[in-house]
From TrEMBL, chains A, B:
Its EC number is 1.1.1.3. SUPFAM superfamilies: ACT-like (SSF55021), Glyceraldehyde-3-phosphate dehydrogenase-like, C-terminal domain (SSF55347), NAD(P)-binding Rossmann-fold domains (SSF51735). It comes from the Bacteria. This is Homoserine dehydrogenase. Keywords: Amino-acid biosynthesis, Methionine biosynthesis, Oxidoreductase, Threonine biosynthesis. It comes from Seohaeicola saemankumensis. The keyword Ligase does not apply. Residues 350-424 form the ACT domain. GO terms for molecular function: homoserine dehydrogenase activity. Belongs to the homoserine dehydrogenase family. Gene3D superfamilies: 3.30.70.260, Dihydrodipicolinate Reductase, domain 2, NAD(P)-binding Rossmann-like Domain. Pathway: Amino-acid biosynthesis; L-methionine biosynthesis via de novo pathway; L-homoserine from L-aspartate: step 3/3; Amino-acid biosynthesis; L-threonine biosynthesis; L-threonine from L-aspartate: step 3/5.
Amino acid sequence: MTHPLRLGIAGLGTVGIGVVKIVKQQAALLAARTGREITISAISARTRDKDRGVSLSRFAWEDDPVALATRDDVDVFVELMGGSDGPAKAATEAAIAAGKDVVTANKAMLALHGQALAEAAEAAGRVIRYEAAVAGGIPVIKALTEGLAANRITRVMGVMNGTCNYILTRMEATGQGYNTLFEEAHKLGYLEADPNLDVGGIDAGHKLALLSSIAFGTRVDFDGIELEGIQRVSLDDIRHAADMGYKIKLLGVAQMTGRGLEQRMSPCLVPAGSPLGQLDGGTNMVVIEGDAVGQIVMRGPGAGEGPTASAVMADVCDIARGFRLPVFGQPASTLTAAQRAQSVLPAPYYLRMILRDKPGALAKVAAILGNAGVSIHRMRQYDHVDDKAPVLIVTHKTTRAALDEALTAISATDVVTDAPVALRIETV
Amino acid sequence: MTHPLRLGIAGLGTVGIGVVKIVKQQAALLAARTGREITISAISARTRDKDRGVSLSRFAWEDDPVALATRDDVDVFVELMGGSDGPAKAATEAAIAAGKDVVTANKAMLALHGQALAEAAEAAGRVIRYEAAVAGGIPVIKALTEGLAANRITRVMGVMNGTCNYILTRMEATGQGYNTLFEEAHKLGYLEADPNLDVGGIDAGHKLALLSSIAFGTRVDFDGIELEGIQRVSLDDIRHAADMGYKIKLLGVAQMTGRGLEQRMSPCLVPAGSPLGQLDGGTNMVVIEGDAVGQIVMRGPGAGEGPTASAVMADVCDIARGFRLPVFGQPASTLTAAQRAQSVLPAPYYLRMILRDKPGALAKVAAILGNAGVSIHRMRQYDHVDDKAPVLIVTHKTTRAALDEALTAISATDVVTDAPVALRIETV
């Protein structure tokens, strides 16, 4: 057995403490599996004096994460502070410069600075690992970089924000509206300090940007994601989608098209009977499609002490075993700039509009859709209430451009009360 | 870039040809991802002159797989012949002795000779990789050995024989009996040359034995599996299970109990709404439960050219990247002999029996169950037809021993027509 692999852990929140517990409690198992002892040399957090439910007295303390990251007795800097910039980034850069490997759960930092950090790490012969940054305990980065390495990836999809999925599935189950369930999620501690990271789709977008880069060999391009949160998903849409056999999910999709990389994170309809449609509550799911393998679906807990620490420690075990690979699965210098292609791929859409009770109202809508080249697959009109009738339409595949043209024209008529709602239906 | 990694491929059936295609068609992608060129030096198969739809003229030919495995220009011996003994084993042993790494899809060989092969490989400093041997394209060996390496695994379950799952789901969908759908599967080419490998649960049992060993650090123990095929699953059971909210699956379960390792491969009931219950057709699913991560579910194609070749090539990529780990995730010398524990864990059971129309018949059955300590959770009696009434019972958790005692006593009465059917209900 070679000398121990020594960790320096910055950030002692839920995940950091979970990592400490695994290192302490599973020492024999980890040594048997990796052939090396794994130890903790030093720790760092914002507050030192705090009962964290586990004894930390045997580890050196550093107030400054940069000092921790560069200690001589640290082989791997474990960054669990979070935040895209500030101390997390400074300490990560310092760790690389000091010749340390890095394991992090920080999706924001990598989604925004991944290319520069990868280039620095690879120039220094160091690795940055981040299994815990995407889909919690699901070993999806490993599946993509290694398990499916012989595939040309064609599409990656995922429900990767448990809080959003919790809110959406609770809306359907309880019939309560978005605002009520947002409050419920807040009380349960499910929301980030800035809730927009969750419900605005940003957190899930960070994860998608990382998966895209690995899948398609492109530089991480968070800004290239067409991003829409769940704030505007109404109870009506959830109910009506269910009537038509669909569920609404905050779904991330990355797909290489003939015109470039399409990345979307938005509320989509998926078939109620599909694995994505059946995903309830805080669980995450990632779907990977490759030319050889077909479709692989992975499901598991997307957050929490145990699952996230499990992923962090998987990365540590790989480093202990001497498994070293480039940050995004191929050298950062070979990653190409992603050509952005937004809504290039045609898709079916779900449309909901409120029709006024006028003669020929529906005919007018149908004619506008037809003129724009949008053909109707299924349509359902409900009873008029106060002279207003909800109309649901599922279109055949259409481009977003054609659809937008039709929706603008429909909104300009006097037969609908508001702008129609349009949600993409993702084929799974 | 270091020198190319040179493969010698024995077996040019569906999977072998799939591997050749990937090496040829994805050369650039593989080199970008692994940092090495991957080439094929030589090939071997039973018949040389046969149109396999891909040009093989640039590869050296060997009639004898042992000669192929030991060639100087071969770094990795890719064993895709199959068969637990004979040429596959001889060539694998020769490859190891000659200092080659081995990649194989051969579950039977490893399930029966895994310990000896692993010891030989590790003594020689060689690796044997077999992602393709379990659950086709799903990177489940990697998930277990690496992605979840920091977990004490508590249970592994899986539907790992697509043919059985195809037959069972078609029975439910079409209302046709086992024999009819066995013939259908046969005509479609879904069955092994010896169909008992599929429908007898042996093939799936081989896979379970490999997963058990990795999960629990025990020597592979195929003979320790409580094995039952799907031949006796009746249409009545499928229908009645559905009435009670369950599906019948050929389910493998490996679990470490206080009294040893319990390994079962048998038709079980699972909740219809669970991921396992919703798995239709030839798709495979593996469920892994660990103390830190909770439950991870992986789903994907369990067979076929592309998926299986994808898994073979993932192992080749790992070798190209220099990732080396023991055959069962920890050194073969540290694996412990599995203490066999059969049906130790209590479980709920589904019982079906045909009751004669006699006064007090049901009371008698209930009394016998009660006396054996088996309590009834749900019961449903159907109408009598010709003085016979089907009765379905879902029990609370009970030991198999208590249940068997009750079933023997029930069979000995004059109130049932045949021995009751008993199927375990697996909690998922």
